Structure formats: C-alpha cells, structure tokens
Amino acid sequence: MSDIAAAPIARTALSFPGPVRTTDGWETTARHAAGGLRLADLGPLVKLTVRGPADGSVRAALGTSFGHTVRPRGGPLAGALVVGSGPGEWLVLGAPGTGGELLAGVRSIIADSGEFASVVDVTHGRALVRLTGADTPLLLSKVCAVDLADRVVPDGAAFRSSVARVVTDVVRDDVDGTRSYLLHCERSSGQYLADSLVDAGIEYGIEVGAPTEHDDATGHPR
Amino acid sequence: MSRARPGGSHRLGARPGEVIDRSRTIEFRWNGVTHTAHPGDTIASALAAAGVRVFARSYKYHRPRGLLTADIFDPGAILQVGDEPNVRAAHRLVEAGMDVRSQNTWPSLRYDVKAVNQLAGRFLATGFYYKTFIKPERLWPTYEKVLRRFVHAGEVSPDSEQPYFDKRYAHPDVLVAGGGPAGMAAAVAAARAGASVMLVEQEHQLGGHLRWGDAEDLRCRDELVAAVEAESNIEVLTDSVVAARYDDNWLAVVQRGLPHVAERLVKARAGTLVVAAGLIERPYVFAGNDLPGVMLSTAVRRLLNLYAVRPGSRAVVFTANPEGDAAAADLRAAGVDVVEVDARHGRTVVRATGRGGVEAVELSDGSRIEADLLVTAVGWTAPTSLLNMSGANPGYRPDAARFVPDPAATPAAVIAVGGIAGDGTRDELVAHADAAGREAAARALALAASRAGSADTRDPVAVPQLGLHHHPELFFALPTGGFVDMSEDVSAKDILTAVKEGYDSSELVKRYTTATMGPAQGKLETVNTVALVAHATGKTIAETGATTWRPMYTPITLGALAGRKFEPVRHSPMQPWHTSHKAAPLIAGQWIRPEHYGDPVAEVRNVRQNVGIIDVTPIGKLDLQGPDVAKLLNLLYVNKWSQLGIGRVRYGVMCAEDGVVLDDGVTGRLAENHYLMSTTSSGAGTVWEWAENWLQTEHPEWQVHVTPVTTAYASINVAGPKSRELLARLTDVDLDNAAFGYMNVRTGTIAGVADCVLWRIGFTGELSYELHVPASYGLHVWETLMATGADLGIAPFGVEAQRILRLEKGHLIVGQDTDGLTKAYSAGLDWAVKLDKPDFVGKPELAWQAARGEHPKLVGLRPLDTSVVPEEAAQIISDGGYIVGRITSSRLSPTLGRPICLGQVDAHLADPGTRLTVRLRNGSDTTVEVTAEHAHFDPEGERQRV
Amino acid sequence: MMLLTCPNCGARNVSEFRYVGEAKSRPDPETATPEQWRRYLYFHRNPAGWIKETWYHGSGCRRYFGIERNTVDNAQRPAGVTS
C-alpha cells in the first residue's frame, strides 16, 4: 500500500451552486443564509440508528420514545439529539466528529441493558437538512400531507411520512422560538428532497446556506 | 385596428354594491377591437357595458349566444383569452392588454349562421355520436376533420409557456364550501367555537346573493364580511372552488388568482365539511330560449348591481318568485321599460323571437310584446353535488320544485346549510347557519380528539332546520321547444326523441344526448332534463331521479390536477464524476446510472484485459445483526446458511411462497452476529420489506435487526486481471489469493478511508473486488482509483458493459432472465435449492416442481449464424409454429466475437446440442443451439479465482 | 383518498401504506397438500363487510399491522397484530 492517496474528503448528499469550503474534512457550501426562511445542510452530523425493545431499559436510557425527542444533559449521549424515530427505533444525532464517542455511548447503554438491541452508524447513509423560519409550515404543507399544527406536531415532536414522495423523518426542533424542522432521509434522495424544498420555498423567499451556530441539530454552539 | 367608444354605452351611474373601480380604466381587445373596462369588471361585464350581445357561437348548431347566467356557469360566454381556451368570461376578471376572442366561430362570429346550420342539421341529430359517422370506417379521418372544425373549442399553442401549477395540503377542522350569508355565518360560528376554518368561495367576493340585494342585504353582507375578517382562525379563499369531496372528507379545492401561481390544488382533509353552495337559478325551456337577450333574473341583477351595466332597454320579466320581482324593480330603477309576466297568476312565456337576439316575446295567452331583454325567474336548482359525493342522496320536493337534502341521510362529517338546505328570511338563514357552524366545529374537534386518543364528550348543538317555501314547478313551456343544454346544444326535442327511441331513464338520456355533460356539469340542465324525461315517460320527477353527480363541481384545468409533480430521483455519490465524464444516463427505477461512457464494447475489452471500475451503489445492502440472522437467511434463501464462516460470502436465491424467483445476491458474514446482505438494485426495497414481513409477522421471537444501508456505502466493483495490482496500492487488506480468496469478505482501509467492506466476488467473471465505501468518501475513492490505476489502463465501465460481461459469463438477471412465473428450477438454480432444509419460503412449490420435472428451463443458446443477434423477447418456436420458449438475454460478445444468448425453453428442448428456431422481429427465422453451460466464456471460472 | 389508522402513527393517507392482503394463517409447509397451499396463496374471501387485513406502513413506522375494515364503507377498527 502506498500513500499516494490525498487526505480523504467527505461530501454530503447535497451540493449547491457556488463556492465550497472544507471544514473538519467535510466539503460543504460556503454560502451563508441569513434570510427569514433558510435551508441548511447538516449532512456532516453524526447519525446513528438504534433498535431495541420499544419499552425497556434501552428506551429508558435513551430517554425518549417514538414521536418525541430529548437532548440528554449528561451521560454517554450528552450533547446529542435523540429522536424516537419509530416504535423501538431511535435516531441519535451528534456534532460532526463525535461518532466514535456516541457509538461507544450507545453500545454501553445496550450492554448495560441486557436486551437485544443494536446500533448502526448511518452518518454516510443519510441526508439531513434543517429548515428554519416562520413560514416553514407553509412550505412543508406543499410537500407533506401531515398536519403540522401545534396540537399535532408540537416543538420536540417527530414523525415519519412522505415528503415530496421521499420517506422522511421530520423532527420539529424550534430554534430560539422560531419554527424549525430537521428532515432526515436516505442519502441518495437527499439532493432531490432539498431541491423539492427549495422549489416549494421560492414563494416564501427561501435561502440555502451553511449552518450557523444556531442551526446545528444539537442545539449547542459549535 | 378599430376602437370601441370608451366608457361603455350601457354603463350606468354608481350603484351601492358595485365591485368596479371607476377611478381606473384599462384596455383590452375583443376580436381585434380595443375596449375599455374598469378593474373589477369581468370580461363579460365589460363587453356587456359596451353593448356586446353576442359572445360566441353554440357548440353544434353555431347559433349566436349571449349572456344567460352572467357567472362562471354561463354557457354563452366561454372565450379564448390569449393562448388560453375555454375561459369563463363571465367570471374571469379583465386585465389590461387581454386579447379576448370568441370561440367556435368558424368561419366568423357574425357571418356563419346559414351555412353552418344547414350542414349541422343533416348530421347532428339526437344521439348523433352513435348514429352518424359510423360507416364507412375509412372515412373516419375525414369526419374527424369536419368535427374538429365544427367544435373547435379554443386553441392551445404547443409553444405556450408552462405556467406554474402548485399544490398543497391543508387540515382545516371545518371547511365551508360557499361564502354567502350562510357560509359566512357558519364559518364565523365554527371559528369562535375554536375550530380552524377554511372558507372557500367560487366568486371574487364573499357575500353570495346579498351582493346584488337591497340596502339591508348589503348591510348584512358588510357585517358578516367584517366578522369573517375579524377571525384569525378563518382562511378565506375566494375565486376558488371545492371541486370534489372524496372519502374521509378529502376535498379538492382549486385556488385561483394567486400571484406567480396559475392555479393551486389544495388537498384539504377537513374534520367537517359545511356545504353552503346556495341555490342556482334554473333556466326555462321554451322556443327561442337561447337567443341573446334571454337572461336569468340573477344575471340581470349581477349586471345591474355589481357592474352597473344596463342589460337592455325594453324588458319582459317572467317571474314566479320574489327574486324575479326584485329584478323587475332593479331594471325599472335603472330606467328600463319593464313588462312583468307573473307565473303565479297563470301567465307564461312560450316563445322568444328575433334575428341574432330577442326582438319579441310571445305569451301563453297569445299576446306578443316587443322587447330586447327577456328575464326569467322560474325557480332554483340546489347544487347538491358535494352532498351527493358524500353519499347523501337529496330527494325531489315538488312543493319547493327542487331537490332537498335529508339531514338524517347525510354523513356526520357533512352538514348542509343555507339555501341548499331550505328557505328562510335572512335572519333565519343566519341563525340556522350559526348553529350549524358551532355543530360543525364540535364534530370536528371531537374527531380530532378521538384521533389523538380522547373520548368524545361534547354536547350536540341543536341546529334549527329551515322550512321550504312553496314554489310553482316551472321547467318548460308547451308545446316544447328550445334548448335544455346550451353548452352541448341539446334541445327539448332531443330529449323527447331519446325517450321515444327507448332511452327512458335519466342516465341513458344523458349519455345518448350528452345533455348535462357540458361545462356547467348539469347545474343548469339536470333538473330540466329530468322534468322532460318525466313528462315523456309519464313518471314523476321524484320517480325519474337525477343523474349521478360526480367530481368536479366546476370544471378545472388539467394543470391544476397535475400540479407540481414529485418524481424522486436517486444519485450515487459519484454522480458528479459521471456527469463530468459524459456518462450516458440510464434511468433504472428512481436511480440515474451511467449506461456507458461512450463505447461499451471497449469498456468490456478493458475489463477482460486490464481493469475497470463500475459504480454499483444502487445494489441493495442490508445490515443484519442478531443471534438469529442465520435462521432468517435459511428461511429467505433457498440454499443453506448455517455453516457460513466469518469472512465468507455466499450467493443466494430467494423465492416467494409460490416458488417464483424473487431476488438474488450475495451475503457476507462480517462477525459472529453481524452480516451484510446484498440484493439486486431493483429489489432492494422489496427484499427489505420482505425480510421485515417474515420477522414481524411470522417470527417476532427471532432476534434480528435489519437496517437498510444501501446508500450508506458507495459501491464500486473493481474488475479485471489487474484489479489486485491496483487495489494493493490503496488498501491495508492482504489481497494475496491465499489470504483473501474468491467468495470472501474483508474490512479495512481504502485510499485512506476506514471502515470499507471488500467482497471478492465475480459477476463479470474476472478477478474482481466489490468495494463498499462509506458513502461520503465514494467520490474520493473513485477519483483515487482512477488516478492510481492510470498506468494499469484503468477505465470506468457502465451498466451496458456489465450486462455484456455477465452474459458472457452466463449469470442470470432476476426479472430479465426470469419473470413472474419462473420458479427456481426453471431458472437453472437446481444446484442452489436445498429441499432437505426444514423450511424455507417457497419450499412446497419447489418440491412439487422438482417432483414433476416438466418445467421450462433457462439455457445458454448459441446462434449458428454469427451475424444475427436474436432480439431479447424473440420467440422460440416449434416445427408446428407453437411457442416453446423465448430469448431472455442476447448480445454480440466482444470477447468471443459472436452472438450469445440466454433463453427459457420447454423441458424436452433443453438438452445441450438441441437446435431451436427463433422467430426474429422482421419475421425471418434463425437457428440457435443449446449450450452445455449458461456461461459462454470461461465456464470453469478460472479467471475469477486467480 | 381514505385515511387508514396506523396503530403506531395514527390516521394517515392510505397512499402511505401498502396493502398486504387479507390476513391468513400460513399452513404448515411440511404437511400442506398442494390444494391447501394454493388455497392459501390464491384464494380470498373478499366479503362485503368486515374483513381482517394486513397492511404495511411503508412511509411511516414501517410496521406490518392487522386491522379490521368494512369493505362496504371503509369503517375501521383495530385488530391484534397479525400472527
């Protein structure tokens, strides 16, 4: 084995016209979006799927169940966002580069539980975007048939449904009181999904850009 | 270009309820002549203000037609605007610069009467669709041309710009269809009761008939509109229509008049649907009833009071109700001479006469009155179609001369309010609608609560029911004459003829005559048609019954239905490279894949001689974890999996319960309880759901977790004699044949990327490694392989080269070499099926197939004429001309220099050396010979094991 | 479009689901006769009225579930998980 290979560069599922930059080994758009409705590519975030009994020790340790989210303050998953993405199914989102720690954290939870549970790192297998702005419910109503009213999907709620005909995890995760949603889908459809969101958002003045410190999934400044 | 007199010769002074903005004047063109209008005018009101009486020619007989209803249903005012045909000109607002033309006016609006009518009379008899133009068949193209000319119904240019149609979903608790007094009152009451409300009004303003009423009506309208506007929970959609109601209150609402959007289809899922569609005035059927100048009383009041247009100068008002009386009063107030003919006193109109418009009116008593305007007010039709679509079936009430819904027979999720439900004073209507709105909200909120898991604990609201005012039954004059359906040019005589010919039910008459099938969709025509059928059959209207009301309530554009289309496409991480290297795109399901990079034959040769790489990311990949994975594999695959060692991969075939081949692929064991399964590209989703089905429904006790990781990995197949040499430069995995032999799996680092999976397998028949790289690094690894392998002659290859390579090697493709009837033994997979396993999916059928042994077989086929490549799907035929098989795959092999095939043939023809006849697409026959192996090249597999 | 009530996700548009079929129990493959097996594969009761069905919520929770549906008016009521 020779060392002629350059340092590997990771690319998310999404690319947008314009300049790119490389941060933490990830190549992303260098555009900055500051408008009232913005789409940010959160592809570099760590993404783990966890499966286990819907109601057991693993669920207790993860701290949430299907349809809800939690941000553990301490413990092995501190700083991550844990999403109940299905019955007995969780999605753990963490800051880029924390995959090793989070994977170890989930494995320790599984080991301690004595239950049959598993974890798969799907960081590279999924696309993740954040939509932020007061008009996001209007935009999403053009691509998703689920009612986004507060009584159905309050802040902190999660569901999976069809978004522009792509099966997508939708997580309502408001940022400083502004409506915000995470959308998470299988990677190869990510560019199509983002394009569909942008198309639906043109009438509301959508902007695409790099995430700001308030735009990452974990809710902690990066 | 000529120019009409500005202002409009028929425009009146300011009216209290007018909707036009007199401070501004805009110009538009009508058949090439420039006219003026005020913002707020419809095309028709602006033209009427200019004294235009004839708007179009009728559909079949090319009779001159003018305004009848002066609203969206007006059959006389369907016009071409610019590139848009069939614009409802009595609804569409005038815009500056509009180019408006009449339709159906071959050869011209004014001068076509005689010639066309004579021609028409010969062909267009009752049921002409079924009677004429039938024989001889060879003249069909000629007939079609004549008909097209006749009924040209507007034009669309193929160059016209595609407007932006949109769609969105909505979830109102209460959706109110109709923004008249009842609809507004119901909406306000529902909103105040805590419901989210969508209020949909077809016209441009809320208010319904109050808009053209007296001062009290206008005051009531203003109050209700103010109440609606005060409720933030009401979303008002004007110039929009609830076009259809489907299961579970799924409502198709078409929203118009939006900036940047041509039309938007709102798919609304409402808790309660409140139908407040009001009443539609019904035309009267009599000789001359289609002459320009014959109008409904509501049309006259719209023109007078909304647009300040005087519709004539001498009017006969034929009235049977207070609204007709009000129209007469309004006309008088506008300075029109009025003669009233009161049906309540037994007088009726029997005929209107004139050339190109009304000149005189004849009454039942034989008297004749000169007039240029004949106003009819003979009754109302309840536009119940949304109720009918909900499963309610309103019945005919002779005392009220209209169909009326029965609340008890209406589904709980639907409530009818206002005029459609009954009659009353303005205050009674509002009180009834207010209670209905509260009840609608209560039902919707209870439904929402029950969907959220709470019980329904509400108290029902008592809704005061409306009574019915007596109204005389007036449908047609005797002797019968005139038109029943002016859009379709169906006359009263046509209906009577149809009944005489044996079409004695409404549904049959409708289809035979096309009455009610035009743009108004029966709203103006159905009841009169039914009345005529009843008259001709001697039955009552209630016995005769209306035709079925179907979507759409109002015709809508196809663009609105199509909306923005969602067609997901999938890309691999290497797609940017493929695009920049001119890959020919192949659409495979949702995936866009490189078919080739210019020369698939050269790509094949390079794989056989040097090394090639292909992007196989779409191959399905499933991560399998748990102690019971082997049990799952043994169940799903026909072959055995218990003995698969860690680090080994095995080819497997799956069948369905009927024994038919479902999918194939290789599965590798990465660790004790950790496997990676691959599937065909098209079968990835199916196999995942298939595995979950068996785990969830048949074996929930098994401990297995299946996670789809198809696109977590970018997959690259490195194939060719130099593939090991290339990879050795980039990986820490020991590639020596002794350490990493054929059908093994290793994990390691490639081009600096950790956690890669390497499978040594061989679809192409060459030494090859399938690399599964964390997808974000796929492009990096691909580019590094290309750069590193330059001196080895590396070249990318596409799907077409892979198809050729695998056919040379005789590997089948599920779905191409098999079909929906191909059981495993027919696919030549005898070696894989292990009937001594206790259970696997498809086993019973396969056991019976093996015992019977008469199944078709997949065989290799060698064409004897090396210049002929039999087409895929070409039939293999017996001496007697029977089909005994077919070619499933065929190519010219670049490696062998001759055509090669796979095909399915009947069992008795499957022995090696058998010669078979293939019928080619051009009709000629060619001979092929069954080969001993599926593989045409390297059947021993020497090349992939080196 | 009708709604279907998923036991995990609640009422959703039926287009989110795949219809698996009338719920049936699989005969023992070791002992089933061809007649029994093909009755299982190809025959359906298809009544006008209540029927126990299996659906798959492909766009949602990705779970197979049983539900009872009235084929006359699409009324639904929960059923135990198919087994």
Automatic annotation (TrEMBL), chain A:
Pfam families: SoxG. This is Aminomethyltransferase folate-binding domain-containing protein. The lineage of its organism: Bacteria, Bacillati, Actinomycetota, Actinomycetes, Pseudonocardiales.
UniProtKB/TrEMBL annotation, chain B:
Residues 857-932 form the Aminomethyltransferase C-terminal domain. Residues 483-564 form the SoxA A3 domain. One of its GO terms (molecular function) is oxidoreductase activity. Signal peptide: none annotated. Keywords: Oxidoreductase. Residues 575-837 form the GCVT N-terminal domain. It comes from the Bacteria. InterPro entries: 2Fe-2S-bd_N (IPR042204), BFD-like_2Fe2S-bd_dom_sf (IPR041854), FAD/NAD-bd_sf (IPR036188), GcvT/YgfZ/DmdA (IPR028896), GcvT/YgfZ_C (IPR029043), GcvT_C (IPR013977), GCVT_N (IPR006222), SoxA_A3 (IPR041117). PANTHER family: AMINOMETHYLTRANSFERASE, AMINOMETHYLTRANSFERASE, MITOCHONDRIAL. Belongs to the GcvT family. This is Sarcosine oxidase subunit alpha. It comes from Pseudonocardia sulfidoxydans NBRC 16205. The gene is soxA.
Automatic annotation (TrEMBL), chain C:
It holds the Pfam family SoxD. GO terms for molecular function: sarcosine oxidase activity. One of its GO terms (biological process) is tetrahydrofolate metabolic process. It comes from the Bacteria. InterPro entries: SoxD (IPR006279), SoxD_sf (IPR038561). This is Sarcosine oxidase subunit delta. It comes from Pseudonocardia sulfidoxydans NBRC 16205.
